[in-house]
Amino acid sequence: MNIQALRSDHIYRQVMQVPLAEKTELYREEMLAPFMKKWETQQVPYKAADPGGFDVMTINNFIFRAPEEMTPEISAELELISSDAFWQECEAVVARSLGLFTENGVKLKVSEYLFTILLGNPKSQSLLLNEGYSGDGGIPGYILCTLLPNAYTLPRMKPALAHEVNHNVRYQYIKWDHTVTLGELIVSEGLAENFATLLYGEELLGPWVSKTSAETLNRQIKPVLKEQLDVTGFDQIAPYLYGDELAKLQNFTPVGMPYSAGYACGYYLVQYYLKQTGKSIVEATITPAAQILDEVRGYWNETTIISD
Description:
One of its GO terms (biological process) is proteolysis. This protein is of the alpha/beta class.
C-alpha cells in the first residue's frame, strides 16, 4: 500500500510566484492534474473546450481558494498548513485508517492513495455552513480535504481524513452509479462519521451531526427520511441528505429539511445497527446498505437519545 501526500503548500507557493496570467494553468497542472482519474470518474472535464466553461476549475473555485488568490495576502493561513509535522500527521491518519481495515481482514482493492489538504474559499457559503471544513473521498484512491485554517478546523483534519478514508474503502466494495439511493448515502455518511469518532473521539464529531438536536432528529428528520430511502437521482437526493440551505446553494429544490439531515440521521442509524448486530464498524463499512437498513427497521420508530 502506497500513500502519497500532495503538498498543496508547496504548490500554493509556486503559484504565488508567477504572473496572474499564468496562475490558473500552473495550478491546474500541479494541483488538479494528479487527481485526473477522479475527475474522469466523476465526468468533470479537466479543461473546458470554451473559455469560462464548466471544468475542474469551476469545482475548485466553488469551495477552494482560486489560483488568482495565490498572493502574499494568504501567507498567514498558508503557514498554518505548511509544517512537515502537519503533513506527517495527516499521512499517519490515512495510514492508520486504512490499516484498521487490513488488520481486520479487509482486502483493499486499491493499493495507491493520493491525498491533499486545500485552503478553503472563505466566501463559500457551503463551507461556512460546515464550520469551515469538509472533505471528498468517494472515489477510491483519492482523498481531498479543505479548511479555513484556524484553531477549530486544524484539529478536525484528522477525523475529516478518517471520514473520507472510510468512504474510500466502502466504494471499493459498493458500486456507485446513477441508481444510488438516498438510503445508501445516509448509511455511507453514518458509517464514515462513526468511523471518524471511533478513531478520534466524539468531541471532534462533525457539525453535520453535532448541530442536530434530538428533537429535530426525531420529530422532523426521521419521519420524512424513512419514506424517502429509495429516492434516486442526485438532484432528488441532495435536499434530503444536505438540507435545504445547502440544496439551495446547488440550485436544488428544498424539501423542508434542516442542515445535513441525512448525515445526522445516518450517524445514529449506524450506531443503532452496530448495537443491534454486534458488528464492528469495519464489517459494517463494506456491508450493502439494503442489508443494514433491513436490520434497523426499529430505528425509525424508536426515539433516539442524544447525549450532551
